[in-house]
Design brief:
- It is a single chain.
- The chain is built from 8 helices and 8 strands.
- By secondary structure, the protein is an alpha+beta fold.
- The protein has one domain.
- The radius of gyration is 32 Å and the shape is elongated.
- The termini are far apart.
Length: about 325
């Protein structure tokens, strides 16, 4: 050591071999820890924002896909013509709208549509209207693949044969176009057994029957508002955007054809859906009201519902 200190070369060697002091190490570790905390916080914020965006995006895609199916059905809407020989009590049904039991419950609708074929007016001078089918929509609380239950929007398109029988029975005997048993096939559908033939002959195929299929999953609410006209009505104070409405306690007359239909569809994400257990939870009447309706529990204000994607749609029905 004495030799190194007594010479210039030795001093340089001693300085080169000198390490960091304890104070310097502690300061470096403190600065590094602060930087790591800041970076971790930024990363966590980014992941949270990305996760929230993914949840909202998945709910938006789910709801828009279902609304597109409903839009297609409504644009193929068809109403039977008036029969001057009949009275106003037995005219053909044109739009069946059954509102929910409360403002938070979902609605049910049914109407006739034309299933258009591949050929159209571009081939022949007469438009191809296809076959007449009855379509119904309703929300059901049914089991999922994982064993849990959730609300789904179901669609059932009756076959032309089923539609003919229902219309015939309605016009001849006054039977309901859709019975409670029919609605139950939408709100609580059961898997259809495999066809084993018709009657006692297994080689004769059984008549084709329609089944309900889910078109939107994780549904919180499905509301429908038929509009009588799309004109300004001075005598209708509840008119919105020139659309004549019904009073709040009035039922839509099924024999009347709407000029347009307003659709409200509210869908939540998978993360929130995993927290909902009972039917009341899904209807925003249970323990998760603030999660589904906002902190102020505002059913008519959808801007403060971060865990629910709300889509609204207005479809103008064909004139024929």
């Amino acid at each position: 050591m004495i030799a190194f200190i007594s010479s210039t070369r030795g001093k340089k060697t001693l300085l080169m071999q000198r390490g960091f002091t304890l104070v310097e190490l502690l300061m470096a570790m403190a600065v590094s820890s602060i930087l790591m905390v800041v970076l971790a916080s930024m990363l966590q914020s980014s992941l949270t924002a990305y996760s929230g965006q993914q949840r909202r995006s998945s709910a938006a895609v789910e709801s828009r896909a279902g609304l597109e199916i409903l839009r297609s059905d409504l644009r193929s809407f068809c109403s039977l013509p008036d029969d001057p020989q009949r009275t106003g009590d037995d005219v053909a049904p044109r739009f069946v709208h059954l509102p929910g039991e409360s403002a938070l419950f979902s609605d049910r609708i049914a109407f006739l549509r034309q299933a258009r074929g591949a050929t159209s007016a571009s081939v022949t001078a007469t438009p191809d209207l296809g076959t007449l089918s009855l379509v119904a929509y309703a929300v059901g609380f049914t089991p999922d693949a994982g064993g849990r239950n959730s609300q789904k929007l179901y669609r059932r398109q009756f076959t032309p044969e089923e539609t003919y029988v229902k219309l015939r029975n309605h016009l001849t005997t006054g039977a309901e176009l859709l019975t409670e048993a029919d609605w139950k096939t939408l709100t609580d559908p059961e898997p259809s057994p495999p066809s084993t033939g018709s009657g006692t002959d297994p080689d004769v195929p059984a008549p084709v029957t329609s089944v309900a299929e889910p078109v939107v999953y994780q549904v919180i609410q499905f509301k429908v508002n038929p509009l009588r006209a799309l004109l300004a009505h001075a005598s209708d104070p509840a008119s919105v955007n020139g659309a004549a409405t019904l009073t709040a306690d009035a039922l839509w007359p099924s024999q009347q054809k709407p000029a347009a239909v307003d659709i409200l569809l509210r869908v939540t994400n998978r993360g929130t859906a995993a927290k909902l257990n009972t039917l009341n939870d899904w209807r925003a009447e249970g323990n998760f009201q603030k999660l589904l309706l906002g902190q102020g529990v505002t059913p008519n204000d959808y801007s403060d519902d971060p865990e629910v994607e709300t889509q609204q749609l207005r479809v103008h029905l064909p004139r024929y």
